[in-house]
Amino acid sequence: MPELPEVETTCRGISPHIIGACVERVEIRNSKLRWPIPKTIVTLLPGMSATSVLRRGKYILIQFDFGWLIIHLGMSGSLRLVHKSVAPDKHDHFDIYFDTGNALRYKDPRRFGSILWTTDAPANHKLLKNLGPEPLSNDFSRDYLHAISRKKIQTIKTFIMDGRNVVGVGNIYANEALFDSGIRPGVGAGKLSLRRCEKLTTSIKHILQKAIKKGGTSLRDFVNSDGNPGYFQQELYVYGREGLPCKLCNKPLRSKFINQRSSFYCNSCQR
DNA sequence: TTAATCACCTGAGGGC
DNA sequence: TGCCCTCAGGTGATTA
């Protein structure tokens, strides 16, 4: 389940292999994703070179000579670099073949992801223009979180998972960051004190940085650009551990549904 | 305007 | 072994 660390891991993995490489051919095997893959890129991209690979939230932005590919991995997507001779699997939707002999291959069994093309700056794209700050940037601070959460009646977990408030925090890392900061997921966002906002922003940054170092979390689908899993799941304190003892106080962890998402917490360590 | 809910999709896992 | 059902989850669209 790709969240920010998985997307960052993917960007770092593909970047050195495709920057400067020229597109020879594009193949769309199955255009059905959240939105259809634009067929125009089959004729547009060949002859262009990739010039940069960036990340904005959970979006991967690949810059070419005359436009950008905006890629979202959805729930089950992955981008891998393979040799062009490697045969595609069942759910490999899309390939970009480069003159280096490599192909950038997009796989997404559940088809919640998306591949879009824009010639405008990605920041102006409707999917990106309303996104909140990057959690690892200085813009995401105690004061910012405290200011935007005033009078909000949503739970804090729903609030930090909303990309308009801060990008890249999905269910796994929201659960882990809230545990790390000692805040129950069901607490109202508007009720957090400045001190607790500071703890939470610190925890979100800490958890995400740790996950990036470990190559992300592989629960079911995620593999990095080499086709290998991430290892952060071995560091999870609460996610998916309902009924198991808390690693800090040994009491059984609980779970509840918040906004249609499984939430895991320790009734003793989190208040 | 805000918050909640729905819909999309397929593989994994459990029960029978 | 095979069938059926439930669950998982990110996010745009829709509804309240």
Please, could you describe this protein's structure?
By secondary structure, this protein is an alpha+beta fold. It starts with a helix and ends in a 6-residue tail after the last strand. The mean pLDDT is 88. The protein is 24% helix and 22% strand. The chain has two domains: 121 residues, MutM-like, N-terminal (N-terminal domain of MutM-like DNA repair proteins, Alpha-Beta Barrel); 124 residues, Helicase, Ruva Protein, domain 3, CATH 1.10.8. The protein has a four-stranded antiparallel β-sheet with strand order 1-6-7-5. The protein is elongated, with a radius of gyration of 20 Å. It binds a DNA duplex (16 and 16 nucleotides) through loops.
Layout: helices, strands, pairs:
Blueprint: H1 4-18, E1 23-28, H2 41-44, E2 50-56, E3 59-64, E4 67-72, E5 78-83, E6 92-98, E7 102-107, E8 114-118, H3 142-149, H4 156-161, H5 171-181, H6 194-213, E9 254-258, E10 261-265
Antiparallel strand pairs: 1-6, 2-3, 3-4, 4-8, 5-7, 6-7, 9-10
The structure holds a DNA duplex (16 and 16 nucleotides).
